Amino acid sequence: MRATFLYEAGDVRVQDAPDPVIERPTDAIVRVVRSCVCGSDLHPYHTMSAADGPVPMGHEFLGTVEDVGSEVSGFKRGDLVVAPFAFADNTCEFCREGLHTSCPQGGFFAAGVGGAQAEAVRVPQAQGTLVRLPKDVDERLLPSLLTLADVYATGHHAAHQARVEPGDSVTVIGDGAVGLLAVLSAKQLGAERIILMGRHKDRTDLGRYFGATDVVAERGEEGIARVRELTGGHGTRAVLEAVGHMPAYEMAVGAVRPGGVISRVGVPQYEDAPIGFGSLFGPNVTLTGGPAPARAYIEPLLPGVLDGTVEPGRVFDRTLPLEQTPEGYRAMDQREALKVILTP
Amino acid sequence: MRATFLYEAGDVRVQDAPDPVIERPTDAIVRVVRSCVCGSDLHPYHTMSAADGPVPMGHEFLGTVEDVGSEVSGFKRGDLVVAPFAFADNTCEFCREGLHTSCPQGGFFAAGVGGAQAEAVRVPQAQGTLVRLPKDVDERLLPSLLTLADVYATGHHAAHQARVEPGDSVTVIGDGAVGLLAVLSAKQLGAERIILMGRHKDRTDLGRYFGATDVVAERGEEGIARVRELTGGHGTRAVLEAVGHMPAYEMAVGAVRPGGVISRVGVPQYEDAPIGFGSLFGPNVTLTGGPAPARAYIEPLLPGVLDGTVEPGRVFDRTLPLEQTPEGYRAMDQREALKVILTP
């Protein structure tokens, strides 16, 4: 089959690779119908050394079941399925609590498993991981369904962990796909005031469509001052941080109201950060978030996608065939495209 | 009057000072009946330079009202009162939300206000700050009532912010007064498993009396391993950190279960700390806590103290007259005393 590999920073290649096969009785093989490029794929695209490559890329996909291992039941060849970006058994104590990203049987689509920017993918723990979609689903819904694999689930996780509730005030940092879907999620949970911090007008316009009430283009101290100005001087009760770089964390600390919560879903590109008296402790600010247990959210979020209540698939603004995946990375990196969907 | 001042690290003096007077119409003057030395007083006792001194000390007291400003109503001379360690107007938006430590009119008993390790103290925002106690209260209850000013309220804040609930598993780091009262508070909120990390047997015995089910004397990696061993490998859902030094934070990160919460009430003696993928983010751990809005907790916690359901005053194991306050600091610093109560 054809599959995408990152060789080193900036070097993405689509090449021949062995067809995936059932390796364990809990595996399934899924033929990819749609996949896409993630903002988090851009982190290794910026920094990975050749010594760490090549690695298979892609962790978001819709597909049809092609084969299942002997311990996988309830799925048959041809079923349309979506998978969360982290596989999990869906039966352990963590999965039962909705924290599938901490499943001891779980893991990520990466080296040793395979990537989803490919014609087919091996899915470990398929019974617990895959979610079947309706057979006759309208093809126009595929982009929105694909967002359940990661970006919509991750945006929802940000708002969910921040316990956004009706009437709430929320700042969303980042106008990438996750930030915009954090706006959508905050709106769904009833937030009244949603301030979107982002500098790309086409993206922040989509953010307004999803429910942002204000847009702040300034960054750093100016951005913090603007959020405080909009909120009577104190900031918003919740800040959803969908970037992962230190300046975004610093803006979150500046924009959160005393007693409020910073919910991070952008993968942190730092380990140490300020959390002492002058940042989080003094004003009793809570810090939460992490990788989204997307599997826990797919079923609750699915009905709104299927009936058209929400259209998270609007974050896709470019469609490319799998062979042009490297162009997808380039376009997203250059901010020419918000999010690129890939077809076989 | 006589009052306590810290001149520099290790140098505490009781000396003559001007009697406090009403400076603003919102002030009251309270004659101190009981005060005490706090674990947090030991931080400047260890590190303060002579250039920053002398500073008035003490922020926990019970007393009788001696005088009130023209804008203070509802209190009369002779009323027995307790005050939270942070004064506040109790009417602003933050106070109404129960976050009195963020009151714009609020502040701490410190330079410019006066300290409570003294014969009398000026209380700013007295109307909002003071809570009247029953006139005929049994003198044996005074130590427990005094803990409402800080250590019991702070232990309660740790458990409250961690949202401890019936059946919960909790680790408490630190066997000082706050740690022990965090144990008591976790027990009150229904925690089933309470692991107390501490090395002083007389203190951990009191912790067992307050509700600890297990005691871990080991520290660092060994302490973490022991907590994990006691909890099926994963740690406890909540960790209440009542120390404030970096090793205690590191133990908290090691002892918390994925998806769990670290609630800090020990004043952090650091600003930067690990919060990235390898510490908080990857396992979706929440970090919360801060200075306790004691004012919000005094009224709800008062009935249990008055009827003897709880005896938080057991943390006091030495009584000294005000003149011997320096000996109180020395004894607490040397771990000879857990917490020293001062009489006029």
Automatic annotation (TrEMBL), chains A, B:
Keyword Metal-binding: yes
Domain Alcohol dehydrogenase-like C-terminal: 177-289
Gene3D superfamilies noted in UniProt: Medium-chain alcohol dehydrogenases, catalytic domain, NAD(P)-binding Rossmann-like Domain
UniProtKB keywords: Metal-binding, Zinc
Domain Alcohol dehydrogenase-like N-terminal: 25-134
Lineage top rank: taxon: Bacteria
Pfam families: ADH_N (PF08240), ADH_zinc_N (PF00107)
Designated name of the protein: Zinc-dependent alcohol dehydrogenase family protein
SUPFAM superfamilies the record matches: GroES-like, NAD(P)-binding Rossmann-fold domains
Source species of the chain: Streptomyces hebeiensis
Cofactors named for this entry: Zn(2+)
